[in-house]
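Training component of the fellowship. As part of building independent skills, the fellow (R.M.) carried out the full modelling exercise for a liganded target. The chosen ligand was 4'-deoxy-4'-aminopyridoxal-5'-phosphate. The inputs are recorded below so that the supervisory panel can assess the work.
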Amino acid sequence: SLEQMPKSETIRLRERYIGQACKLFYKSNPLKIVRAEKQYMYDEKGNEYLDCINNVAHVGHCHPTVVRAGQQQMALLSTNNRFLHDDLVICARRLTSMLPEPLSICFLVNSGSEANDLALRLAQTHTKNKDIITLDHAYHGHLTSMIDISPYKFNKPNGPGKKDWVHVVRNLSSLKNQYARVMTLKYRKREELCKILDYRHVREAGGVCIADEVQVGFGRVGSHAWAFQLYGEDVVPDIVTVGKPMGNGHPVAAVITTPAIAGSFKDTGIEYFNTYGGNPVSCAIANAVMEVMERENLQQNADEVGKHLMAELKKLASRRKIVGDVRGVGLFAGIELVLDRVKRTPATAEAKYVVSRMKDRKILISSDGPDDNILKVKPPMVFTIENVNDLVSTLDEVLGEVDIEKEYEPATTILKATISQMDVETEKAACPNGKPVFVRAN
Ligand code: PMP
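Fellow's submitted model of the complex:
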């Protein structure tokens, strides 16, 4: 058995000793996963679950090449990066080779939060400014510095609230909701455009752009290695942060920046030392992940399987009225559940029900979004066409249990056309010459 105690005892000890703020998936009947392989997870009874949650297990759970790299290096040496080590420089060279010039200088850290905290410090040191523009509902990490710039957290009822040096711009997908809900189209449009236009010249004003690729980087979007590249080949941020998939489950993350920004940081004379950042074990693992990604063509797989996923989800949206919208790219998809397609009333309870019913059917998905009504699909990159078909046909059946009767009202088509035109205009205004001007979580 892979268990050291019965599941009931694990639950009891967890409740007794682990901070209750750490939430479990499927709280009323949590899963005890004892092993995993590729895109599948197994509970203590040997039940197999299709994993559509763990984007961290990028090249597949417990990939043998990655496991071996970690085991071998751990048996040889793990120490801090004040000693020379080949795996560290190989990791930095490989990482920067995946990014456009002048993103050529790396800092190795241990988590996405740490990477973003360092990115913020680099940006603030280089610009000698503190202000930051962030997207509404964005999440950048659990450190205090990251909560400050994550509306997802600071806006919670008991959250710390917004600091005056933090400026929040609305995210386009939520704009769409807002417009549709209140239907005061023209007024809202002008207001939003003005807000975004205020930030048009961030770079000209000496600001820098940070792309948080912690969740979506490393080929997940399929067509490109990085999500920021979806905005155009010539779009190059000043700082990029990567994490989660980089270690396939092992804690390793990085900040990649320009020589100019790294230079400003060095010029402060304050040494940067991170005990575990860039240790040989983490670097060997990251190197193995990048090697497997290339050898198994996983970005291309994300592109092909992702296109099939989006096409199938769009078909699902035409069959099931509770699906208000389907968004995503590559192997990252959101399925918005609504009680009314015109007003886009969030179907929050239904989303929760669907997640739980999918688990009964041995498929793991999660829900997210400001109203927690978006089903989220972000599986390991080894996801297959058959996995998509399983996921979508099961989702179809489960959605049948909560589907709504209401049809589109005739005005909707017109409204939808207006909204999509508005989005095009808003996007153009937000990115003059195709350049992003604000800090964004991809
Ligand atoms: N940025 C983004 C976009 C994330 O999704 C996350 C994790 N959900 C983080 C940063 C923080 O990463 P970590 O949990 O590794 O600190």
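The panel noted the following from the submitted structure. Residues 111-113, 116, 139-142, 212, 214-215, 243-244, 441 surround 4'-deoxy-4'-aminopyridoxal-5'-phosphate (CB under 6 Å). The first strand starts at residue 33 and ends at 37.
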